[in-house]
Amino acid sequence: MRYPIPYLIYIFAFGIIPFFGAFLILGVNISSAFSVFKFVPVGLVVENTLIFSFFTAALSSVLGTLLAVAVEILPKGKRLASLLVMLPYTIPFTSSALIWTISLYGKYGWFSYLFHLPFDPLYLAKTSIWAVTGVSVWSSVPVSFLIMISSLRSVPKEVREASVMDGLSLSQYYSSVAVPMVGKAFWISFLLQFVLAMGNFDLPYVLTQGGPGFSSTTLPLLVFDEMFTFGNFSGGELVAALLGLMATLPSLALIFLFRSRRRKYLPSLNLKLSDRVFKGIMMALMGLLLFTLDFPVYWMVLVAFREPILDFKYPPVLFPTHLTSSYFISSLEQSVPYMITSVVVGLTASLFTVLMSLPASYEAARKGMGWLLFLSIYLYSLPAASFVIPLYLLFTGIGLINTWWALILSTPIFTATFATWIFYNFYMDFPRGYDDAAQVFGIKRKLFRIIMPLSRGSIFSVFLLSFVFNWHLLFYPLIFANTPYNMRFPPEGALTITIFALQALGNESLNWGLLASSALVASLPVMVITMMAVDRILRGERGSGVKFI
């Protein structure tokens, strides 16, 4: 059991110990910890968190499944349609929030205009949490789609051929055979989205900062406010502990699904429509959803490159005119220090992720160490707020606050645990003949000489997905850094590109060109990289090495 040792040391040092250490810190000042209940409607915050998490998970899983079926029945253009579905995934949460800030802005935003909203739902107490949830669904649908399309492609061709022989229509095949067969993937998507949304700090923080009042405050946002706005570390830790406990149940359910050999967790529905009608309905639905998914990205690019005099026109100007590159160039120049930090942190943390998780996953898959996978899944599903206080105190004590190392060391607790899930599933089907050949011919260091070269597709995809995750980070950079990179050596300052985009959102004036260009600058590099990774995954599981079930 030598290969998993570095990985185990890391997850204990930066995951398990901080998680339980948080409870020890809580005991330092009980009265201060429980004072949060006197000044904050914690019941409302918990309700907001559950609304945000449940509806994000439910709607994104259902819509992702419908889009996966629609893409599957396309005669041509499956990869293009898939990439269009995945486009919102390429946008960091901070940039997504900035896009929707100007999309929902009263009667001047494109969404408010096209869907006849007479008010901005982000600024009303009754609608703010639902508006934030809607943006979360928009960001989450692509991941659910990716899980479901990969799973539908794993249905044996013989099943489809048998359904044709039995005279089943397309609607009957998908409703009573294919989708129920991948029911396990659907619930994995639901639970994964649920626990990730439960820990999502970025969207509520950027869109509303929890307001008006506490109407859209969620538990991760409350943790941040208690610790870094009010200086109540014990209160913040109490809320973080509550959040960790709430995430435990869905995390255990997710682990149960991985352990289960059963796949059919959805009922069969005998939806009997003619193929022509079914295809027409699915194509119309896909067209509407693709418009909703992709038009905000177009809006971001359009607003970033046009004159500001067009921002507050009614009806909104939806086509390119009066174009200028001044805002984009200015944002690009100002973003350089932040961009350098994101690149360095993303590349280094992703390299650590692969080097730690691949050997551990390989030996775990070979020796049946399923507990390592389950431990990884649980840690991955815990919110970042569950670890942050002990890590903050640790980095403060050893002088790593506002350095690249604080981010490089802390973020793999999410990327390495996710990578272990992917690598484990990959090596479960990896031919054992390679191990036997290495033993027969006495090949030493087989992991590096044989296994890793044969795992290039999996390594490439995991590395890119890890880089994308690190690029999207907001919570940890907001806490562990306070200035941009100083452009000197030794390096100092660790604010990332997501913080740069966030700074464009001023309190006194709303400059759409600045917002959109900052969002675009933060998104553009990772959009290209993400599309490369997603395209590789969509070619098929064998080429990409990515399996979700």
UniProtKB/TrEMBL annotation:
Q: Which domain of life is it from?
A: Archaea
Q: Which Gene Ontology BP terms does the record give?
A: transmembrane transport
Q: Which locations, inside or outside the cell, does it occupy? A: Cell membrane
Q: Mind telling me which CDD domains this protein's record contains?
A: TM_PBP2 (cd06261)
The regions listed as transmembrane in this protein's record are 7-30, 50-71, 83-108, 128-152, 173-196, 238-259, 280-305, 336-358, 370-392, 404-424, 454-479, 512-534
GO cellular component terms listed in the entry, alphabetical order: plasma membrane
Q: Outline the extent of the ABC transmembrane type-1 domain.
A: 46-258, 339-533
What does the record say about its membrane topology?
Multi-pass membrane protein
Keyword Lipid metabolism tagged: no
User: Pfam family example for this protein?
Assistant: BPD_transp_1
Keywords in alphabetical order: Cell membrane, Membrane, Sugar transport, Transmembrane, Transmembrane helix, Transport
**InterPro entries of this UniProt entry?**
BP-dep_ABC_trans_perm, MetI-like, MetI-like_sf
- What does the sequence similarity comment in the record state about its family? Belongs to the binding-protein-dependent transport system permease family. MalFG subfamily.
Q: What is this protein called?
A: ABC-type sugar transport system, permease component
